[in-house]
Please model this.
Amino acid sequence: GGNTVGQLGQGDTTDRHVATRIEYFVTNSIIITDIAAAGDGGATGDHVFFIAATGNLYACGGNGNGQLGVGNTTQQNTPTLCSGISSVASVAPSSNTNPHTLAITTTGALYSTGYNGQGQLGQGDTTQRTSFTVVSGFTNAAQACAAAGNISSVPGGFSIVRKTDGSVWSTGYNASGQLGIGTTADRSSFIQISGLTAVEIAANADGRQGNVAARKSDGTVVVWGNNAAGQCGTGNTTDQTSPQQPSGAFQTKAAKVIVAGGGATTGINGVIVMTSDGEVWAAGYAGQGFPGSRS
Model:
């Protein structure tokens, strides 16, 4: 694949047309148990994270905003140990311009690094970080989604995190109501979304026109945020600033939900739900045949 900013971890910026083993991990006897990648951003956006069996986190690729968490903003052509964090359980990078990254440890601590112009790191300020920094007071994190982007030169990143008790929290850019807190005001600290308990959350990694969906334990789905293409499934194109339950026979039997897409000036997102009996339902942008239907 493409390797313009070293995202393949091969020690160079040469594209590869066949799968090539990353020798750094072999040479250093590092066993990788999970990976996460983000793209669509050139020098700032294309990057990859690797979680090792030891709990250490490694990263390579573009690093213009410190999103790799290696202590600088220098492009990394070879996997590099991330600083300020250990015992990593999961990592959530964001795509597009001005990215940031969230990571959760095995103890449920939440860390963040990268661009922070709208408070998307949840640190109570808008100061960029280049090393993973713990979000003070945030405990029992179970799942994280990070979204980044830029609308008419205005960055638009936000973060959504689910805790082990099912509560859902958000911070950052909120022009489309993607934080789900009933307003369109940005936040620089995590705030709980009122009345919502979920077993799964999903957000589009391109946060320029943010959308979020959540699946509850009873198999129902709620959606909020940008709705320019009807992706919230509410039968209109009005942005939703708090979780809304769209109608459909998939409700009560949802088994998986994803949110995909993004757009610089108009919402071109789609929300897709898979049910326990194998059906797939979709709402939102239908250009290029995505998501297969429109409502």
